[in-house]
């Protein structure tokens, strides 16, 4: 069932990416300078709508954008799903990941010459052999474990697995403290779970070792402590921007996030 769901999500992403690549084609035919396509990968406890404000800013500035659907099943399988989107979008790309999505873009972009820049938004940048859970615990400060709502279910092939949600009454404080309460309540109700195994799975590759990266560090983050984010950004030699924001910085500060993405995009066309 998981593979079927992932396939369905990938098909939805194809439709969006086709629109973006079509826009790029029209720009080329008009003789205009083509901007790279920005591909956005959401993280755990979120969905593609978490990028809505960022998408609006990028599109207003002339960037084609695709918000890919992240199955949240595991870095390797999620990266495989994202690569189908990357393969469908023609031309240069800037790949952006939020939270666990940073783990996914780090693997999906490996050995892809069309990915010109990586942007990490309050995100994981694991080295090969590291997991999201391991990195979260590298420095103190995450209060996520006490806010989780685990759901265990029977797998079709036998055995059990666990999905992780954030308890709805703790969602705003934990995940989106600087987002208006009504909007945070909608985000809590619509959140998508991440497989517990996905946070424990070790990274197989790290595209940030060879592709230039930009990093937004959120200093009021209760999911991934700022100290962890700074450690990963420094190790990757990222161009780093710090902001006093919650983990949901793309929702609360869409202009700042889009500005960093656009800086990365401009750097790839010099």
TrEMBL record:
Write the protein's name. Answer: Alpha/beta hydrolase
Origin species, per record, is: Streptomyces dioscori
Q: List the transmembrane segments.
A: none
What residues does the AB hydrolase-1 domain cover? 38-259
InterPro entries registered for this protein in UniProt = AB_hydrolase_1, AB_hydrolase_fold, Sec-Metab_Biosynth_Hydrolase
Q: Which GO terms describe its molecular function?
A: hydrolase activity
Q: What UniProt keywords are attached to this protein's entry?
A: Hydrolase, Signal
* Signal peptide positions (record): 1-22
């Amino acid at each position: 069932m998981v593979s079927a769901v992932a396939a369905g999500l990938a098909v939805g992403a194809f439709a969006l990416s086709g629109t973006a690549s079509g826009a790029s084609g029209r720009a080329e035919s008009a003789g205009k300078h083509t901007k790279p396509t920005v591909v956005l990968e959401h993280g755990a406890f979120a969905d593609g709508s978490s990028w809505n404000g960022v998408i609006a800013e990028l599109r207003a500035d002339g960037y084609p954008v695709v918000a890919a659907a992240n199955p949240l099943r595991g870095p390797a399988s999620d990266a495989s799903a994202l690569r189908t989107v990357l393969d469908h979008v023609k031309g240069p790309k800037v790949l952006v990941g939020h939270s666990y999505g940073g783990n996914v873009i780090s693997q999906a972009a490996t050995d892809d010459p069309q990915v010109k820049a990586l942007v990490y938004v309050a995100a994981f940048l694991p080295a090969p052999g590291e997991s999201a859970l391991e990195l979260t615990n590298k420095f103190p400060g995450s209060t996520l474990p006490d806010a989780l709502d685990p759901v265990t279910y029977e797998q079709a092939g036998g055995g059990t697995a666990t999905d992780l949600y954030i308890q709805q009454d703790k969602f705003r404080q934990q995940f989106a403290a600087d987002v208006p309460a009504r909007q945070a309540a909608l985000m809590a109700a619509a959140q998508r779970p991440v497989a517990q195994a996905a946070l424990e799975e070790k990274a197989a590759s790290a595209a940030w070792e060879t592709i230039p990266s930009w990093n937004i560090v959120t200093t009021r983050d209760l999911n991934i402590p700022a100290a962890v984010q700074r450690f990963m950004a420094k190790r990757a030699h990222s161009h780093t921007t710090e902001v006093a924001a919650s983990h949901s910085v793309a929702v609360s500060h869409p202009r700042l996030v889009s500005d960093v993405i656009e800086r990365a995009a401009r750097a790839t066309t010099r």
